TrEMBL record:
GO cellular component, as recorded: cytosol
PANTHER family referenced in this protein's UniProt entry, alphabetically: 42-9-9 PROTEIN-RELATED, THIOREDOXIN DOMAIN-CONTAINING PROTEIN 17
Tree of life domain: Eukaryota
Protein name: Thioredoxin domain-containing protein 17
Subcellular location: Cytoplasm
UniProt keyword annotation of Translocase present: no
Family the UniProt entry places it in: Belongs to the thioredoxin family.
Gene that specifies this protein: AUGUSTUS-3.0.2_31743
Keywords attached to this entry: Cytoplasm, Disulfide bond, Redox-active center
Coiled-coil intervals, chain numbering: none
Domain Thioredoxin span(s) in chain numbering: 7-124
Family matches, as SUPFAM superfamilies: Thioredoxin-like
Keyword set includes Transmembrane: no
Predominant location: cytoplasm
């Protein structure tokens, strides 16, 4: 069963990860634009990717932790000095990004809209 976690902003993400214990389970992190009052992200690519990511989690019967991180508003993200971009562990260049934490596997941009790629990413092989 997937264990979902939700984090908003860089400082909260850093605190969460610092204190997080995955107990040896897989950890995937989704980075997307923060939500507007409408409940949707300001990032159109993130809006398109979200239902596909949920479908892949369900279809693969993902066993592990899935952390949703809202990176902030558009101006914060677009700033080339955004800490998510500068962080050596996240190395974000594109939203949305889904990555396997502390591993090289990642999907970026429109790759996050491809069910087959997400299914491969969510398997533990």
């Amino acid at each position: 069963m997937v264990k979902k976690h939700y984090v908003e902003g860089y400082d909260n993400f850093c605190k969460f990860i610092e204190n997080f214990d995955s107990q040896g389970e897989l950890v995937h992190i989704y980075f997307g634009g923060s939500k507007l009052p409408s409940g949707e992200s300001w990032c159109d690519d993130c809006v398109r990717a979200a239902p596909v990511i949920e479908e892949a989690l369900d279809k693969t019967q993902y066993q592990g932790h899935f952390i949703y991180v809202q990176v902030g508003d558009r101006p914060f993200w677009k700033d080339m000095n955004c800490p998510f971009r500068k962080d050596k562990k996240t190395k974000l260049m594109v939203l949305p990004t889904v990555l396997r934490w502390n591993q090289p596997q990642r999907l970026e941009g429109d790759q996050c809209e491809k069910l087959e790629l997400l299914e491969l990413l969510f398997t533990d092989e």
